[in-house]
Input
Amino acid sequence: MACTVGAARRFGGGALGRTAAAYVAGVALGSVSAFAVVGVVATTLHPGRAWLVAAAAIALAAAAADALGLRVRPQVPLQVPEGWRRTFPLPIAVFLYGLVLGPGVATYVPAMAAWALIVLSLGLGSLAPALVIGLFLAAGKALPVVGMALSGRPAAETELLAERPGLLRGARMAAAVLLAFGAAAALAGPARSDVIARPAEDPSVAGTDLAWQQPGIGGFLVRRGAAPAPLPGNDPAIGGSHIAWHDGGEIVVADRTTLAPVVQETVAGVQKLAVGDRWLAYRQGFANGSTRLVVQSLDDLSRTRKAASARPPAQVGRPSLSGDLLVYHVAQGRSSWISSLDLSTGRRRRPRSASDHQLLNPSSRSGQLLYVDVTRCAQQLRLGRLTPGHDRVLFSLPPLAGQDAGRERGHTQQGSRVPCRGRPRPTRTMLWTTALTSRYAYVTTLRRDASGAVTPSLVRLTLPQ
Amino acid sequence: MREPALSDAVVARSTRRGFLSRVGRLLLAVSGGSVVAAAVRSQRAEAFHFCGHIYTTGSCPHPTGLPRIDARGYPLRAADGKPVDDLGRPVSAAGLPIGPDGHVLRDADGNPLPPAPRTKVCVAAARRFGFRAHTDGAWYRCCGGHVRKLVDCCGYVRRRINGDAALTGYCYAGRNVFCVQYYDTKVRC
Output
C-alpha cells in the first residue's frame, strides 16, 4: 500500500500529500465505522459481566497466539481490488482501499489481535470504547504506510515484509502485549452501571430482595424476578429476616418473607430506617433542623440508644445496618466522616474522615464499606475495607461546581491556578445513598433540573468478582 | 508581596530586565511619545494573573480558581463574590449549598443537602502543602473601581507554591510568602 500511496509522488504539486491524506481518511472512516457498528450492537445487547470476562479471556488467548507467532485463524483469503488503482483517480482509489483495510478483518488478517479487538469491543458493551479502539486501530494501520510513502522509499514496505519476517513477528508481539494490557484493563475497569428504577432512591438490600423509596408515592420491594411491589409505608429498609417502613410517625418492622408485622411503634420525626435481625435504627429530623440517629433492640424496644446527633447545619446521614454493625455519615462545615458502631460491643470507629471533601451515605457488608466521596473535582462511589486503606472507585461523576480561568481577564497566566485539570464540566447530578450486596453496588443519583426539581434514580453496578 | 517602592526600583535598575525595560521605554518615548510609553507602563502592571498582584508568587489553591477571599479568609467566588464551600458550590450564611436562585438545595425528600467543609484559603493551602498558616501583612491596590486588599499566605517555608525560593514579602517573624490571595473591599477608589 505504501507503493500505491507513494506513486502519487511522480505527479508532484502536493499530490503525494493529498493521496496520503485520502488513505488516512479512508482507513479512519473504515475502522471507526466498523467499530461503531460493533459498539452499537454491544450497546443494544448490553452484555453482562460474564460476557466481558469471556471476551477478555478470548483476547488473552489471542494475545498468547500472537506472542507465540501461531498461524492466524480464522484467516481471510482476500485482498483489496487491484483494479481500482487503474480505474479511479489515485486519491479515490487509496481512499477506497483505506475503507476496506480499516476494519482490519476484510482482507488478509496479519494478527489474531484484529479479531480479539472486535470481541473485546462487544464485551465492553458500550459505544465509546469501541470507537476509541477503532481510532487507535486506524492509526496503527495508516501511520506506517503513510510514513513509508512520505519517506521516499515506498518500496521498503515490500522489502521489510518479504525479507524481514522478524518485523511482522515483532509487530505481533507488540500487539500481543498491548492486547493483554487492554484485556486486563477491561476486567479491572469501572463497574458496569444500569439505571434500574426512576424516580427511586435510598436502596436497601438483603439476599436477592431490593427495596427503595419513590418520593411522594411510598416504598417498593422487588424480589428476585418479580415486578416491584408497593409497600404500605415509606423509606423501606430490609435486613436479615426483617423489613421495616414507616407511615408518618408509625414504624412497622415486619417479616421479610410474609410482610407480617413483628414490631410496631410510634416515633416523632422519623425520616430514614435501617433494620437487621436484631436491631432497628432510625434517623429523626426535628423542626429546628437537628438530626438524631437512634438504635433499638428488636428484642426489647425499651433498649434505646442514641448513636449520633447533630445540630444544624450539620447533619447525620441515613443509617445502614449489616448484622450488628451500624454505619452512617456526619457532615458539618469543618469536616465530614463515616462512623461505625458495633452494636454488640458498643465499639465506635471512624473508618473515613475528610476535612476538605464530603463523605456521604455509607453502607457495609462483610467487612466492606461502600460510600460516596464528593471532592472538588469529582464525585466517586468508592468501595474498600472498613479499615482505612486503598479504596476502589466503582463509579464517577464530574464535580458539582465549575471553575474560573484562574486569572482575571486581560492578565497573564503567570501564577494562575485552577482547582481541576482539564476544566471538567460540572454536573447537576449528585451521588447520594448506597447499598451493597456481594454482587452489586447500588447508588442513588439526584438529578436537579433547571427549575430546581430533583429526580432520583437508582443505579446498579456490577461488582468486579 | 512588596510594594514596588524603592527596593523594586533598585532591583529594576540592577537587572538586565530592568535595563532592557529602560532602553525600550526610552526608544518608545523618542519614537512614539509619551502615550506609547504610558501604554507600556500599564501593560507592565497587568503582567501578573490578577489586578494588583505585582510579583510572581502564584495563587493559593482556591475552590473556584481566582483566590478571592472574604474578610476572614474564607473562599468567595471571584465572579460574583458569593461564598463557596470547598467543593466550589455557593453556600448560604449557614454553610448549606444553595442554587442559582439563592435557595437551599434539597434532596428528593425536601431535606437540605448536607454541608461540605468550608476552609480558609490559606489554611487549606497550609494543610495541603504541610505548613502552619499565618496571615501577616497586606497591601492595597485600586482594582475595578474598588480598593483591593492583597493578602500574603505566610508560613515558615523555604519554597513558595511556584516551587522556587520563597520571599519575605509582607510576612513577619522570619516567615515567607507561600501563595497570594485577595479581598475586594467595598471602598471606592
Summary: The beta strands of chain B are 134-143, 146-155, 176-188. Chain B touches chain A through 56 residues (CB under 8 Å). The CA atoms of residues 153 and 179 of chain B lie 5 Å apart. DSSP finds four helices and three strands in chain B.
